Amino acid sequence: MGGIARLLLEQAGLGSGTTTSFDLIDHACGTGPIAARLQEMIQPDVLRQSRILCADVNQAFVDILAKRVRKLHWMNVETKVLDAQDSGMAAGQFDYMTLNFALHIIPEPEAVLREACSVLRPGGTLAFSVVHADTGVAGGWVPDLRSTLETLPFKTPLPSPVQMAVHGKPEWVDPEGIKKALSAHGFVDIVVKTVSTPQHVKDPEEFATKFSMIFKWIMDTYWTEEQIAEYQAGFRDRVIDHLIEKHGNSGWDLQGTAILATAKTPQ
């Protein structure tokens, strides 16, 4: 996801040419692709004066990222467990709010837009990426997870195409639907782009970590209670073993299409 994170930050106006310090909150931060790209892209003298808060509702991701921050000596990166739908943060604290591949998963994306309107300063930038609906045909995680499911002794009725909007709101994986949602919440200077770019996965274990929420969604949506009870606990290991057999214990690229959206709060 690092390549998309870079493109998203560039669309938001952040990069090597940034000369002014900033305060940024990265919601649904996962293991930190946004923070990693910021450390690469922003000049050190700007980073020293800036604040980067990485937040996720998942304690495990926050713990992993906190260790990464310490190990790599990233500048001015904080980590915290927060819900992007309602963080409880004081209003008007940030110049940027980012979410990388999250708004098609988070149950109430409209609540996230309200959160952005609250925590961003006037003229602040919301920037997010989501999977495009077209990826549900045979892109992204779909081929590898579908082939893993086929190793089970029962059939998972995964449709084709797969609905990429995990929360069941297809407008959030459609460029026009995203534009309408942003406009309805009062955002201005809305830019929505569609990009096709491979996402590199370094090994099967990283795939299993990145898409753990997708695994849970598939189980909750398509498996019976009996199937969950019997196969959920070992499913991550099944995914890893299958992908080692399929790809080897090395990396491969996931092909897909992403939507990048940026918008500003009114001045």
Write the layout of secondary structure elements.
Layout: H1 2-11, E1 23-27, H2 33-41, H3 44-47, E2 51-56, H4 59-72, E3 77-81, E4 94-100, H5 109-119, E5 120-131, H6 142-149, H7 175-184, E6 188-196, E7 199-201, H8 204-210, H9 212-222, H10 225-231, H11 235-247, E8 252-254, E9 257-264
Parallel strand pairs: 1-2, 1-4, 2-3, 4-5
Antiparallel strand pairs: 5-9, 6-9, 7-8
Helix pairs in contact: 1-2, 6-11, 8-11
Description:
InterPro entries: Methyltransf_25, SAM-dependent_MTases_sf. This is Methyltransferase domain-containing protein. GO terms for molecular function: transferase activity. Keywords: Transferase. With about 270 residues, the chain is an alpha/beta fold. The protein has a single domain (about 1-265), classed as 3-Layer(aba) Sandwich (Rossmann fold). The chain contains 11 helices and 9 strands. The protein has helices at about 1-10, 35-40, 45, 60-70, 110-120, 140-150, 175-185, 205-210, 210-220, 225-230, 235-245; strands at about 25, 50-55, 75-80, 95-100, 120-130, 190-195, 200, 250-255, 255-265. A 7-stranded mixed β-sheet has the order 3-2-1-4-5-9-6, sandwiched between helices. β4 (about 95-100), α5 and β5 (about 120-130) form a beta-alpha-beta unit. The radius of gyration is 19 Å and the shape is globular. About 40% of the residues are buried.
